[in-house]
Write a structure and sequence with these properties.
single chain; 374 residues; alpha/beta; Purple Acid Phosphatase, chain A, domain 2; six-stranded mixed sheet; 30% helix; 25% strand; elongated
Length: 374
Amino acid sequence: MFCFIHSSDLHLGKRFGNFSGDLPSRLREARHMAIGRLAQHAREKGASTVLLAGDTFDTETPTPDVRRQALAEMRHHAPIHWVILPGNHDSLQATQLWTTLKAEVPENVLLAVEPQPIELGPNTVLLPAPCTTRRPGRDLTEWMDGQATPEGTVRIGIAHGAIRSFSEEGGASDVIAPDRAKRAGLDYLALGDWHGAIEVDPRTHYSGTPEPDRFKHDRPGSALLVNIAGPSALPEVMSLETASFAWRTLDMHLFEADDPVPALQALLPEPRQRRQTLARVVAAGRCRLPGHTALAEAVAGAMPDFAFLELDDTGLTTECEEEDLDLIDRAGALREAANALLAEAGDVNRSAADREVARAALARLYSYAQKVAP
């Protein structure tokens, strides 16, 4: 039985420049701490090795502190062994990075920088396909098909890239053969690049990232525990929870008669979880002007509870009646402006985008009027 952890896409040093305040530093620290969480799982599950299937670093030029602190953390968790494969973000084209890593790695860290067999344990061999550049232009796993190993050897492949259309950046020339495990007689193929865990077939898996970094996948961070009883045996694969932050897309579909505030509260996680949650509320459907304003104010009121919270209301159509305009003003300049915006919002001769701009402006005017009302 050979037991190991399959992980990938740590993206250590990621800047998270689209966020402000102390959140980017918190997210960067969470990625570093994922090393310790992987090691803890390895100890608890009896795994001797952690395979990192590419993009351990977010760039080809990670800062010295990011690089050295990561290696120090891995050293701390000896005798667990770590195998680092170059990915598309930290490819072998970054010669200075990999030359420096070779000089700095502790004894329990192995760099899989050549397409050559690596002995992981008795009768267990790793066949790595390191990324030569960000876009190699070819299937780097092809060499595994012809690589002979002694009879009775467990064959494990490790690669980083796209199978079919799984990758955000992979093109047709970069696609890894979906049946590579079968072609190369692999007992398991550990893949990285896709940030959500995916089973391609029983012997081929994407582990996903241990710490999510975007809303796209809307899945918790994970790694995979893999047990292989022997050559040709199907691997036993179990998902392990690894994330400290949750990234959640909260879909809310409203009808005109709905009260959006209770609907929002029903979607939000319980208060203690919010500090570690990044959430995007996606509102769609139809809503009266007062309800739309109340929804925006409720989201704004909840923001301090969360690591990050935002409202995407581009799919929410705002309905407005005469009585809603009376709540802005019954006469004068504000009422004239409200009447004009309402007319523009309902003008079928205008583009849908222009009508939505008018609706949004009317909602802002309503909100302003309610705030300054005596």
